[in-house]
Automatic annotation (TrEMBL):
Family per similarity comment: Belongs to the peptidase S1 family.
Polar residues bias: start-end ranges: 38-47
All copies of domain Peptidase S1, residue ranges: 76-321
Pfam family, one: Trypsin
Lineage: Eukaryota, Metazoa, Ecdysozoa, Tardigrada, Eutardigrada
InterPro entries reported for this sequence: Peptidase_S1, Peptidase_S1_PA, Peptidase_S1_PA_chymotrypsin, Peptidase_S1A, Trypsin_dom, TRYPSIN_HIS
Record's signal peptide: 1-24
Origin superkingdom: Eukaryota
Organism: Hypsibius exemplaris
Alphabetized GO MF terms: serine-type endopeptidase activity
Name of the molecule in the record: Granzyme M
Length: 327
């Protein structure tokens, strides 16, 4: 049975029972979950066979293990430490501790995954006071008040569906603008694709980079911890059909983008973060927002699944065009 894991400082797997989603032409059904029975609306996006597995509960973000020791050799499941501040569009979404990544779109807006900021049982956002955002970091612990921003508004994609993680996107509007320079670090913004059409990205190209402070391997033991320094790894694109076979979602919708893990993988705490690539003009372009992986972040042929940003440009541009005090 396929297992889905998401990493908002969160394990959201689908392990055990079967849930059948219905198309817009079917009557609503009830699905059994860890939280009891839940009614699926008639407009839920359909997942063709096989059956969608069961969802495991959220991991408490306050009790996740962290790496505080620079002498421990760590990596992003066979990734490497990123060059400090090279990817300064990267943000850390925190709820007590780091739980998710995010990408800075503008001085007011950060794009992340909807599952990072919503409750499992009703898909509604947590109270704004639960979160803060840290920018201009390389060392996850190396921040001051100047790096921290409060969240003034959470905008969840209107068609987000936690069962299957469809449209797994959220935009955070901050309480004050991110300055161009934070504690001597120039904070950048990541570029969006120029078209809502599917870009002709070559399959198998080992050119897609993922970054994050998520779970890493501790070479001195079997224990995993959150990374202290920002990690990165490159991956090849996985064809949609192959991704569907590995995740059990057939056909795999074009709103999802998949990469293939080998020795490398992503893990808890990486979700919400970006997958991006360097364009011929040198700019870094956001291609997706990390949603889940079809396994246990072991790097053994798993499919790593993202929300494909190019398919959500009208919504992203509409939300990110609104700035305070209009929010």
């Amino acid at each position: 049975m396929t297992a889905f894991i998401t990493f908002a400082g969160i394990i959201i797997g689908l392990l055990g029972c079967s849930v059948t989603l219905v198309t817009s032409h079917s009557a609503p059904v009830t699905a059994r979950t860890e939280h009891g029975s839940q009614r699926l609306s008639s407009n839920s996006q359909a997942v063709a066979s096989p059956k969608v597995p069961h969802q495991t509960p959220m991991v408490d973000a306050y009790n996740l293990p962290y790496s505080e020791d620079d002498n421990i050799v760590l990596n992003i499941i066979a990734g490497v430490e990123a060059r400090p501040h090279r990817h300064s569009f990267m943000a850390s979404l925190q709820r007590g501790n780091h739980i998710c990544g995010g990408s800075i779109l503008s001085k007011w807006h950060v794009l992340t995954a909807a599952h990072c900021v919503t409750k499992d049982y009703n898909q509604q956002p947590y109270p704004l006071g639960y979160f803060r955002l840290a920018v201009g970091l390389h060392d996850r612990l190396g921040y001051s008040e100047a790096n921290l921003f409060r969240v003034a508004k959470i905008t969840i994609h209107p068609h987000y569906n936690r069962t299957g993680f469809y449209n797994d996107l959220a935009i955070l509007t901050l309480d004050h603008a991110i300055p161009r320079v934070v504690r001597g670090i120039k904070v950048s913004r990541i570029a969006l694709p120029g078209s809502s059409q599917t870009a002709p990205i070559p399959n198998g190209a080992n050119r897609f980079k993922v970054i994050g402070w998520g779970y890493v391997e501790n070479k001195s033991s079997t224990k995993r911890m959150f990374a202290r320094k920002l990690q990165e790894a490159t991956f090849a694109l996985l064809p949609q059909k192959e991704c569907g076979l590995r995740t059990g979602i057939l056909p795999m919708p074009i709103t999802k983008l998949c990469i293939e893990s080998s020795a490398k993988s992503v893990c808890i705490g990486d979700t919400g973060g970006p997958i991006f690539r360097a364009m011929p003009n040198g700019r870094l372009q956001l291609e997706g927002v990390l949603s889940y992986v079809s396994g246990e972040c072991q790097g053994r042929g798993e499919a790593i699944v993202f929300s494909r940003v190019s398919q959500f440009l009208p919504w992203i541009n509409n939300v990110s065009s609104v700035t305070p005090p209009a929010v």
